[in-house]
């Protein structure tokens, strides 16, 4: 066994909630025939919930999370930080 201290980091509830919500919204948009990435990006840039379908409560789900939190989680994930 080596003498180095190991770090343990839990995924925060915020990250898990954002991830789960984005997957649900993505799948709902895809089911309805939309390009989910384009629709979600449109929403994140503009704040206009009209980009998100109300199908399967996707609009209600995504509006429970602040857009800046979604961007933060996406950037953290992309940059592996």
From TrEMBL:
The family assignment reads:
Belongs to the UPF0297 family.
**What InterPro entries is this protein classified in?**
IreB
Classification via Pfam families: IreB
Question: What organism is recorded for this protein?
Answer: Candidatus Onthousia excrementipullorum
Protein name as catalogued:
IreB family regulatory phosphoprotein
| Classification of source organism | Bacteria, Bacillati, Bacillota, Bacilli, Candidatus Onthousia
């Amino acid at each position: 066994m080596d003498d180095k201290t190991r770090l343990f980091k839990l995924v925060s509830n915020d990250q898990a909630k954002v991830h789960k919500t984005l997957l649900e919204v993505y799948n709902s948009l895809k089911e309805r025939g939309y390009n989910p990435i384009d629709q979600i990006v449109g929403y994140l840039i503009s704040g206009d919930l009209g980009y998100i379908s109300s199908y399967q409560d996707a609009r209600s789900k995504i509006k429970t999370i602040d857009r800046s939190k979604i961007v933060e989680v996406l950037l953290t994930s992309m940059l592996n930080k």
